[in-house]
């Protein structure tokens, strides 16, 4: 071994002793190899970014370790003491596969543990993260998807605080960028680059973050270096000459079979000959795509070798045979036992730990020459061999339900197992694939593969994630984010690959990039996932966008959720999941149709929902993939599925796992939208898919540990089919019913402690005030809370059944909430209406134990709206705006020409708002039997303007108010007029929906009339009924607001000011018209809205109106026509309605009546 040379000598091997003393124990050798020695100055003596392209097995992992030690050298003192400040300088290691992460975790935990380095593995499907553990960690090992998901979840709860402490990012197998999964890697690296440029990060380690990326041999390492901002000295490329063992590669192409499954099975017949040709009697690994494939390949080789007897090529000596025979006797797997005696074994996750350890030991010793295994061994235990055979480059993808090509990084990892440095000087790799893919793997092994970006197809999802995380807050930053991606690098060099014409000018290429960004933002804004300002510059996240990011959903799936109805049933939600993009890879195969048709026919009535045709009948033939998914999930949720096909079962598992995630997103979305029914059904569906059981299933006991479908059926036969019956059953009888031994009965009864405690709901009505009822909901834990590792979260929802609205939602822990726990709700309750409240406790994990309670809130008080016809002392009055037509509807037996005061059924009237624009509006009012039309609410017992004026301005009754200008009149809008009404809105309790009205009441129906010209051809005779005398003037116009709603009427009718002084008037254009307001006296036949005291000279009050173009005027006469007259003139703007009618001459005694309509308007 050459001695240590100068730093610039790339051929001299560096010694481990060149490292500071605290770091030397990390390495178990004395010298670095030639590749490591050449990279040593850049890795350990500088802080520049690096991209290293080298063959598998050349020692690239040591480069990562040198870069980690370079970062840790910041904690070295001058006397070489190492004082680590935990969590202040973080390293992120990103690898494409979980197995590779776990391998590095085991290795580095031992090597770096002596330095006190805290390593944290972040893999798996957990949705929750220990923020303290992340904060205290020094080295985080994760996959791209997990790191992306974790950073997305931590946005709202402050879980991204550790980002500022990131100082080093290690990217293993960076050629993953070329695979579909590479988009996640590209997104997280771009995010780190964006955050490092923020101004508030200047003093944080993230501002100077260092990127180290290693890869197998690729042709465009310079593009990755440009993306990671690596300088020329940071780019290191090594060929096959740097491999410690020379590798010979061979790619064999075979003709395709009828299907991929038969193709893989056919390859087994070629393995023996390949081993005879290339293994040379040395150890060999045969990589198979499935456990069953590995087992079948081992059995085939074993039978072939056993048939040769003493000529068995896998058996070298009698001593080897004796060792294998003795080892086979300790195997628990009979098939493995029969293979081992012939020198062949198999290794997969289906073996017990004892058998796996036995096989690994025999292979490492050389006694077991051939080992058939799955691809997971390529990343797990280090079991190198002289020869590696990859039987088929495809594997069955559970998520997609079909055979797909291996990821390139996986193939390279398998190839990396060939050649054992201590024992071999050469290694051999044989790849068996289809003829049409031979060139792909030849390019891969020769290093000619071009790494492209995969970000564009899913750019909208990742851009939304950046907006949610506030990394991107405007269109400029969105474009900047795109420029931080690898896509930006490659689209400039290979635009045709991304759908852009080659050879366009650079400025047009930049415009194309901006257009891509703007297009994605427009798509997000169109479906309400983000908010943009008027010019589309500013970007802000909205709740639907946050949910899509949180649950890692695709944009097409989120569009289905956003467009869903607020009243979705369970069946509707299932159809959304069946159409989701997450499971769009599932295909309907011809050989599956008969089985699916038989399940959907469901002669036994097992299924809850069926695939139906347009006429509502069950489909006889399943024709689409959505139909297939719908049948599979319904069969699964019965708890006892008929489907036992392995492939279909794998697809069903994927449907349930993805569907559960989608249902959880729908749950939170509908809670955000306050859609009660859809939210409840989403909660139920999410946990049903998780447990693979409907809440009404006969096999609910399957949720308990140790109870499968066979045991659940036995218990059901014995009459134990619920948690309650199981709790009361005798343990010995349970054992007898299931055929199990003691203490099985005690164990399953003890397992009931894993269920949430029982909770009781009490609902109390604390009374009604101002149209609102105070409801108290109390939760009480009925059973003692048992300590458990499970959280037992429960969603508490209070909803209104009539309007499908969520009034209250809270997520609590069933075992930990303070019992009793009470909440108070203020529930609006209209007069004589019913509001049905439902309180639901939906447990997050278990089905069949939810609690529901219903409570009806009603308001039946003795309030009467009394009509005062000619009484001695009237109540104060109020006028309605012209967009409301007040109709008194009486039944045939109670209608008469003269009103009867004191008759109980007739005096009890309620104002009812009808809000039907297109229905229930009569063509003619005279079609309504017994109706009378008024031009004022004279019967309502609420304060009026004229009384308030009389009280507040009593000393000014002899003074006329000055005439306002026309501009002043127009500035007084209808909103200003009714500001005096709004203060008393809660004191007017007589507004309700007509559908809830008691039939014993005589309603006053507030109809919203049509505004079309000539729609209401009223007969004047109807208007004259019941002592209503017609006016002598011309026909008036019927003017009704087209935007009247129940809520608007409630506001207008019920808000009154007791001390109103704001009076407005419209300009009257002639003295002749002004005099009309003081010279009108209602005759005996007119309808009067003031006290009559026998003569015109007595103090009386009359209400007359003088119309102007846009104004509403009130005039009240008291004492005489010439003195103490108060004129209340109220002006409305162009959009307000008009009261009153024109008079032809001042001599006419005008009556204030509603006139037959003319030109589509109504005047009072």
UniProtKB/TrEMBL annotation:
Example of a GO cellular component annotation carried by this entry: nucleus
Stretches that traverse the bilayer: none
Catalysed reactions, as listed in the record: Couples ATP hydrolysis with the unwinding of duplex DNA by translocating in the 3'-5' direction; ATP + H2O = ADP + phosphate + H(+)
UniProt GO MF annotations: 3'-5' DNA helicase activity; ATP binding; hydrolase activity; nucleic acid binding
Keywords attached to this entry: ATP-binding, Helicase, Hydrolase, Isomerase, Meiosis, Nucleotide-binding
Domain of life: Eukaryota
Region (Disordered) residue spans: 1083-1104, 1132-1164
Domain called Helicase ATP-binding: residue spans: 41-236
Domain Helicase C-terminal: 266-467
One GO BP annotation of this record: reciprocal meiotic recombination
Biased amino acid composition, Basic and acidic residues: 1090-1101, 1141-1151
Record family assignment: Belongs to the helicase family. SKI2 subfamily.
Protein name according to UniProt: DNA 3'-5' helicase
Protein source organism: Aegilops tauschii subsp. strangulata
Classification of source organism: Eukaryota, Viridiplantae, Streptophyta, Embryophyta, Tracheophyta
């Amino acid at each position: 071994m050459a001695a240590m040379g100068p730093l610039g000598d790339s051929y001299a091997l560096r010694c481990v002793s060149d490292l500071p003393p605290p770091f030397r124990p990390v390495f178990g050798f004395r010298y670095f190899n030639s590749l490591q020695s050449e990279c040593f100055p850049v890795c350990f003596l500088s802080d520049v970014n690096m991209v290293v392209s080298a063959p598998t097995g050349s020692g690239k992992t040591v480069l990562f370790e040198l870069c980690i030690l370079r970062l840790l050298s910041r904690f070295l003192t001058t006397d070489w003491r190492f004082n680590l400040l935990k969590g202040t300088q973080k390293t992120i290691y990103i690898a494409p596969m979980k197995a590779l992460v776990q391998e590095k975790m085991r290795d580095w935990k031992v090597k770096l543990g002596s330095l006190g380095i805290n390593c944290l593995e972040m893999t798996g499907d957990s949705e929750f993260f220990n923020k303290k553990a992340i904060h205290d960690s020094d080295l985080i090992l994760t996959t791209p998807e997990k790191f992306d998901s974790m950073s997305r979840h931590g946005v709202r709860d402050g879980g991204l605080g550790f980002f500022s402490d990131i100082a080093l990012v290690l990217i293993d197998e960076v050629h993953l960028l070329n695979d579909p999964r590479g988009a996640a890697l590209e997104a997280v690296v771009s995010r780190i680059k964006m955050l490092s440029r923020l101004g508030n990060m200047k003093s944080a380690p993230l501002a100077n973050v260092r990127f180290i990326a290693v890869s197998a041999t690729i042709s465009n390492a310079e593009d990755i270096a440009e993306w990671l901002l690596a300088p020329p000295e940071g780019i290191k490329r090594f060929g096959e000459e740097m491999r410690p063992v020379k590798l010979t590669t061979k790619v064999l192409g075979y003709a395709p079979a009828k299907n991929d499954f038969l193709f893989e099975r056919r390859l087994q017949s070629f393995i023996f000959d390949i081993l005879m040709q290339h293994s040379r009697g040395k150890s060999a690994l045969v990589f198979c795509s499935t456990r069953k494939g590995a087992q079948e390949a081992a059995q085939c080789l074993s039978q072939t070798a056993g048939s040769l007897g003493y000529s068995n090529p896998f058996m070298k000596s009698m001593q080897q045979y004796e060792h294998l025979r003795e080892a086979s006797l300790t195997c628990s797997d009979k098939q493995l036992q029969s293979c081992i005696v012939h020198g062949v074994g198999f290794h997969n996750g289906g073996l017990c730990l004892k058998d796996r350890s036995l096989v690994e030991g025999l292979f490492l010793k050389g006694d077991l020459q051939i080992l058939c295994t799955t691809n997971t061994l390529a990343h797990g235990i280090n079991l190198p061999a002289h020869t590696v055979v990859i039987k088929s480059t495809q594997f069955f993808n559970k998520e997609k339900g079909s055979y797909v090509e291996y990821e390139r990084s996986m193939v390279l990892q398998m190839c990396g197992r060939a050649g054992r440095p201590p024992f071999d000087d050469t290694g051999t790799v044989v790849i068996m694939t289809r003829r049409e893919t031979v060139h792909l793997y030849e390019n891969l092994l020769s290093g000619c593969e071009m790494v492209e970006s995969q970000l564009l197809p899913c750019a909208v999802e990742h851009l939304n994630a950046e907006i949610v995380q506030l990394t991107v807050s405007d269109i400029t930053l969105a474009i900047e984010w795109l420029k931080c991606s690898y896509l930006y690098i490659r689209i400039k060099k290979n635009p045709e690959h991304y759908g852009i014409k080659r050879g366009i000018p650079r400025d047009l290429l930049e415009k194309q990039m901006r257009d891509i960004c703007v297009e994605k933002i427009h798509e997000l804004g169109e479906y309400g996932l983000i908010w943009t300002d008027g010019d589309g510059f500013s970007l802000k996240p909205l709740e639907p966008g946050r949910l899509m990011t949180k649950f890692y959903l695709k944009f097409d799936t989120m569009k289905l959720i956003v467009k869903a109805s607020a009243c979705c049933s369970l069946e509707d939600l299932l159809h959304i999941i069946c159409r989701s993009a997450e499971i769009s890879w599932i295909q309907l195969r011809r050989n599956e149709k008969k089985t699916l048709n038989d399940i959907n026919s469901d002669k036994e009535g097992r299924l809850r929902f069926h695939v139906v045709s347009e006429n509502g009948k069950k489909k006889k033939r399943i024709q689409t993939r959505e139909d297939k998914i719908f049948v599979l999930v319904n069969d699964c949720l019965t708890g006892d599925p008929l489907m036992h096909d392995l492939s279909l079962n794998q697809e069903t598992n994927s449907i349930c796992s993805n569907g559960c995630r989608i249902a959880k997103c729908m749950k939170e979305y509908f809670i955000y939208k306050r859609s009660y029914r859809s939210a409840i059904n989403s909660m139920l569906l999410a946990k049903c898919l998780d447990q693979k059981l409907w809440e009404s299933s006969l096999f609910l006991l399957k949720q308990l540990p140790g109870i499968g479908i066979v045991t659940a059926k036995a218990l059901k036969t014995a009459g134990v089919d619920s948690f309650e019956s199981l709790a009361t059953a005798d343990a010995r009888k349970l054992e007898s019913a299931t055929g199990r031994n003691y203490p099985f009965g005690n164990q399953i009864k003890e397992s009931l402690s894993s269920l949430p405690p029982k909770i009781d709901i009490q609902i109390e009505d604390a009374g009604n005030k101002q149209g609102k009822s105070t409801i108290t909901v109390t939760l009480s834990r009925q059973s003692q809370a048992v300590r458990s590792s499970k959280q037992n979260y429960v969603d508490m929802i209070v909803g209104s059944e009539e309007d499908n609205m969520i009034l209250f939602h809270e997520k609590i822990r069933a075992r930990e909430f303070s019992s009793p726990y009470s909440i108070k709700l203020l529930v609006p309750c209209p007069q004589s209406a019913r509001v049905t409240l439902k309180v639901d406790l939906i447990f997050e994990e278990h089905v069949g134990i939810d609690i529901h309670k219903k409570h009806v809130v009603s308001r039946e008080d003795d309030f009467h709206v009394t009509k005062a016809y000619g009484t001695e002392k009237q109540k104060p009055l109020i006028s309605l705006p012209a967009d409301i037509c007040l109709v008194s509807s009486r039944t045939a037996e109670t209608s008469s020409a003269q009103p009867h005061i004191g008759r109980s059924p007739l005096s009890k009237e309620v104002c009812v708002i009808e809000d039907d624009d297109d229905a229930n509006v009569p063509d003619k009012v005279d079609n309504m039997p017994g109706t009378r039309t008024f031009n004022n609410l004279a019967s309502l017992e609420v304060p009026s303007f004229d009384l308030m004026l009389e009280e507040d301005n009593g000393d000014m009754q002899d003074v006329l108010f000055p005439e306002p200008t026309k501009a002043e009149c127009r500035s007084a809008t209808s909103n200003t007029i009714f500001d005096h009404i709004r203060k008393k809105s809660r004191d007017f309790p007589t507004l309700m929906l007509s559908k809830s009205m008691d039939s014993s009441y005589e309603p006053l129906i507030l109809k919203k009339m049509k505004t079309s010209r000539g729609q209401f051809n009223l007969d004047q005779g109807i208007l004259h009924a019941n002592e209503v005398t017609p006016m002598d003037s011309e026909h008036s116009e019927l003017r009704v607001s087209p935007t009247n709603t129940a809520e608007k009427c409630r506001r207008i009718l019920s808000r009154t000011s007791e001390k109103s002084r704001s009076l407005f008037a419209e300009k009257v254009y002639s003295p002749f018209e002004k005099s009309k307001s003081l010279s009108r006296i209602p005759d005996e036949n007119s309808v009067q809205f003031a006290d009559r005291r026998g003569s015109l000279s007595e103090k009386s009050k009359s209400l007359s109106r003088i119309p102007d173009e846009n104004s509403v005027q009130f005039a009240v006469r008291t004492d005489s026509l010439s003195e103490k007259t108060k004129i209340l003139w109220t002006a409305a703007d162009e959009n307000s309605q008009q009261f009153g009618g024109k008079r032809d001459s001042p001599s006419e005694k005008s009556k204030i009546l509603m006139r037959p309509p003319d030109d589509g308007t109504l005047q009072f």
